[in-house]
Every structure is written in C-alpha cells, then in structure tokens.
# Entry
Amino acid sequence: MAKVLGLGGVFFKSPDPEELAKWYQQWLGMDLGYPYGISFKTEKMPENSYHVWSPFKHDTKYFEPSNNNYMFNLIVDNLDQILTKIKPSGCEIMEETERGDYGDFAWFIDPDGNKVELWQPPLKAPAEL
# Structure
C-alpha cells in the first residue's frame, strides 16, 4: 500500500526571500543556494534525529510570539554555540532553553517574524520513540 515516507521539505512565503536566505546563511551557516533552497541529506543527520509532522490545536500558544500558524524546527550540532553565534544578529532569542530526554531546544524569531525552534538531538535515543 502507498504511504508517506518522510518530510520532503518546508516551503513558505517571505517578503524578501533573497535577504532571508542571506540571513540564514550568515548566522546559521545554511548554504541555501537561492532560489532553490538547501537539501539536507538524511545520511548526514545526527544520530537520534528524526523528522516530525505535528499539527497543533488552533489556539496553541506554542508558536508565540510569532503571529504565524507555523514554526520551523532546525536540527543543530551544538545548541549553545549556535545561540552564541546568532546573538549579534539582532534576532529575538527566547530566554528559555529546554534540556531533556529528547534533546536540547531553544527558540528565536527570524527577521521575517517566524518562530524557529533549534533542536540538538540527544546522544542516546529516548525509550519512547
């Protein structure tokens, strides 16, 4: 039977896609190769990382302070270093950082007002996956 095999991409609108791509390239090291974006090869992903597709209730506060109905989640190799790296960019970095069985998480608002969740996967996979 035919079925979905994984997340194929994230596509969204931007008032200035080229400038936003340059921001992500400068501050997060994403070589976007605009206009087509970047391909993340699964074989290069950290161990214990995975793709998530998760609808949230319409009244969730989880995407705040962004006004968008979506949020990006990016896998990183070193959460603390990435946060230090993006601090001078002027983006709004949320104060909380969550560390737990599923890895480490932090959040910021990009220049377009999108909430971005940064995720450093755990060294050991959690028991419940």
In short: The longest strand covers residues 92-100. The domain at 48-120 is CATH 3.10.180.10 (2,3-Dihydroxybiphenyl 1,2-Dioxygenase; domain 1).
